[in-house]
Amino acid sequence: ETYTMFKKDGQDAAAGYRLRPDQRGVPPHWMVYVRVASADDAAAKAKDLGAKVLAEPFDVFDAGRMAVLQDPTGAVFAVWQAKRNEGLGVIDEPGAFCWAELMGKDLPRSATFYKSLFGWGTKDDPRYTEWTLGGRSIGGMIQIQKDWGDVPPHWLAYFQVEDCDRSVGKAKEL
User: Fold this and answer.
1) Are 135 and 125 contacting, i.e. CB atoms less than 8 angstroms apart?
2) 172: burial class by Cβ within 10 Å (0-12, 13-18, 19+)?
3) Do residues 51 and 70 lie in contact, with contact meaning Cβ atoms separated by under 8 Å?
4) Structure confidence at residue 1 (pLDDT)
5) Are the C-beta atoms of 104 and 141 separated by less than 8 Å?
6) Residues of the chain with pLDDT under 50
7) How far lies 87's CA from each of 34, 71, 82, 116, 146, in Å?
8) At what angle do helices 39-48 and 107-118 cross, to 10 degrees?
9) pTM of the full predicted structure?
């Protein structure tokens, strides 16, 4: 099977797909999607702001329309224009997505890009930046440290758990 919807209590919680042969060598990873009114408009605007369009807007059957973009600092993300599939049906509870974080090397440039593209705001702290939308915290951004090695800019998806230690133990077991 190429594509799998992961469900929690009957609601969409995440999805996974098998990497294509042309993606050989790419490590498995989570893709962060940002919902937009128009994937075509978002991709065009992102390109005008210095992003690369890695996958031009395309229809995902009757579920929605999407594009894959690489921001000007190198982090890859997708935009999602909902049709039949609105996106995640469950968030912010154990077993579901709860936070997206951009790990970057040029935070001022990233902030300018995402604020311009999506209209996000920020709550800035010397150690951490929170992304905001409509006064609500929706994610974060942190500087990649030199001692982390050769880590490229990327988006990281977080899933909520009831007990971190137990979840790490179960992940190791599996």
Assistant:
1) no
2) exposed
3) yes
4) 59
5) yes
6) none
7) 9, 22, 7, 23, 35
8) 140
9) 0.93
Name the residue with tokens 């920020």.
Answer: 122
Give residue 57's identity as a one-letter amino acid code.
P
Encoded tokens for 92: 């912010």
Tens digit of each residue's pLDDT (9 = 90 or more) over 87-131: 999 999 999 999 999 999 999 999 999 999 999 999 988 889 999
> Which tokens sit at 63?
């579920």
* CA distance linking residue 50 with residue 73, whole number of Å: 9
Give the H/E segment covering residue 141: strand 136-143
Closest CA to 47 of 68, 29, 20, 26: 68
160 token code pair: 């909520």
